Structures are given as C-alpha cells and as structure tokens.
Amino acid sequence: MGFLLNFAADTDALVALLSATATTLAVLVVAWPLIGRSDNLKARMKLVGQERESIRIRERAKLSELKVSLTLAEPTKLYKTIVDRLNLTVHAEDGKTVQALRSAGYRGRSPIFKFLAAQVIVCALAMLSSVFYATLLLELPLAGDLAIGLCAGLIGYRLPSVLLKNQAQKRQTSIKRAWPEALDLMLICVESGMSLEAAFRKVSEEIGRQSVELSEELNLTTAELSYLPDRRKALSNLAQRTNLESVRAVVTALSQAEKYGTPVGKALRVLAQESRDMRMAEAEKKAAALPPKLTVPMIVFFLPVLFAVIITPVLIRVFSL
After folding, report:
1. Which Pfam families does the UniProt entry name for this protein (predicted)?
2. Which residues of 74-84 are buried (b: 16+ CB within 10 A; e: fewer)?
C-alpha cells in the first residue's frame, strides 16, 4: 500500500512538473516575437537603409559612366548667336517646345537652340531658293515671286516641327510595343523582392534588345530615383517624357504605392494585361483597315493590267482579220 501511495505521489509530481514546463515553454514561444521584435526590427530597418544607400551609390556611379547619352552638351556658338540675335530665347523657355523635344528623345539646352536655329535657317533657305527659281525660270511678276517666297518660307519654317513630330511618334511606337514586356519583367523583379530602383535598372538592361528608347527612358528614371528627393517626381517625369497613357497609368499606380504603401504586384499584373490587350486591339484595328486601303492600289495598278491581259488577245484577232 505504501509503495502505491509513493508511486501515485511521484506520478502527480511528475505530471505537475511536465505541465509547468509545457506552460513555461508555451508562454516563451508566444512571447518570444514580442520580446525580440524591437531589436530585430531595428536591425532589419538598418539593413534596408544600408542597401538603399548602396543602390543610390551604385546608380550614381553608373550615371557618371553614361556621359554620351545623359550629358547635357552646350549649344553650338552659331546656333546660340542666331537665337540671341533674333530674340528667340522666349521660345527656348517655352514648355511646349521643351516637351516636344523630350518626347522625341532630345534633352538639354543644345537641342532647343538647334531646333530654333534650324527653323530660321530652313525658312531662309527655302524662301531664297524659291524666289531665285521663280525669278529666273517662271518669269512671274514681283508679287508672284514674293508670294511663292512666302509660301516656301512658311513650309520651311514648319518642316523641322513636322520632322520632330515624326521622330516623337516613332519613339512612342517603339516604347509602346515594348512596354507590356517591360511590365512583365518589372512584375517579376518586384515580386522577387527587388526595390524600385533595382527593378528599373534590371528592366532597362534587359529591354534594350527590343527597344533602345525604352531602355534609355528607364535608365534615366533610375538615375532620377537615385538623385531626386521626391521619388514621385521622377516617376511623373517618365510619364511626361513618353507622353503615353499606358505609361501614365503605371506611373500613377507606382506613385500611389509609394504614397500609401499599397502592393504593387497586383496592379502591375493588371496593367500588363491591359497593355497587351491594347496592343492586340491596335493590331486588329490596323488589320481591319487594310482592305479599304488596298482598294485604290488595286483599281489603279491591278485592273488595267487585268483588262489588258483579257482584251489584248481579242484585239489581236480582230486586227488580224
């Protein structure tokens, strides 16, 4: 009997000891994240700050190496003299002219002076050549020569703007075609844990094979993200330079994520799908417009040949009788 009582007492003590140990361990497991959170959070935030600073240093070093594409050259003395003599500096500060040049891929003060001087030079050359041609060959009165000269001068003045607009449209087309693939690459980079600067840098390196223009814009945006204190300003500059709705939608999503801390991956996935759908819809629209465009060439070039092939044997038989 005494043995049984001692065994029962030892069993109760063992159960109590195990229960106390299990309770203590459970409390430690639950409370351990709360105990070590502050130090762990500080260490992680310190590592994030160090990584961000290293990214900024690396991007600044890469920016210093891109002297050819990102260096803002001074305008040529001839162009600057023409602009200053004709008092065209007001147009050099015009936001529309600067925006048009940026959309075409020209940045800095030198392209502005070149564009304004080209308008004057082409206008003068067109006017003088047309007046000289009309005077020597057409033998028109003085009023007719002046009218031809004015028309030619107006066409010459507008010619650089037309060429600049065509260059901007070609650049936008190249960016628009490669933008869905760039969004897919950016989505992969963001979901893998990369920062925004690293994602833009990686995408700019990979997308250069498909679109040099888009690679240049993303590279410039990466540099602005490293330099500018307001990151949303760098993103808005990207939208202004490209002047595309698809790019502006992505910039808006990234700006909201930067401001409110919302997840970027889902928004990028939806925007990438929309960009691909828009590209497919544009291709289908061009394909649907092809038959009406082919009507006039078929009437002008195919039908006369077809009639000649059909009627020529008949005419040969008729005249041979």
Report:
1. T2SSF
2. ebeeebbebbe
> Which of 37-46, 170-179, 265-274 shows the lowest per-residue confidence on average (mean pLDDT)?
37-46
Cα 101 to Cα 114: distance, rounded to the nearest angstrom: 11
DSSP notation for 55-107: HHHHHHHHHHH-HHHH--PPPPHHHHHHHHHTT-HHHHT-HHHHHHHHHTT--
The structure tokens 């920062």 sit at 195
pLDDT tens digits for 6-16?
545 566 677 67
> What percent of the chain clears pLDDT 90, i.e. is strictly above it?
0
CB 107 within 8 A of CB 216: no
* Alpha-carbon 168 to chain mean position: 12
Cα–Cα distance measured from residue 215 to residue 207, given in angstroms and rounded to the nearest whole number: 6
Q: What does the buried/exposed string (b/e) look like for 244-281 if buried means 16 or more CB atoms within 10 Å of the residue's CB?
A: bebbbbbbbbbbebeeeeeebeebbeebbeebeeeeee
Q: What angle do CA 68, 71, 73 make, to 5 degrees?
A: 105
Q: What is the pLDDT of residues 153-181, one digit of tens each?
A: 888 888 888 898 998 899 888 888 888 88
Distance CA 74, CA 108 (A): 8
Contact assessment for residue 132 and residue 103, using Cβ atoms and an 8 Å cutoff: no
Give the position of tokens 């330099």: 227
Alpha helices in the chain (DSSP H): 2-65, 67-70, 77-85, 89-92, 95-103, 109-133, 142-191, 196-206, 212-227, 231-242, 245-260, 265-288, 290-297, 303-320
Q: Report d(CA 239, CA 243) in Å as an integer.
A: 6
3-state secondary structure of 222: helix
Count CB atoms within 10 A of the CB of residue 231.
Answer: 17
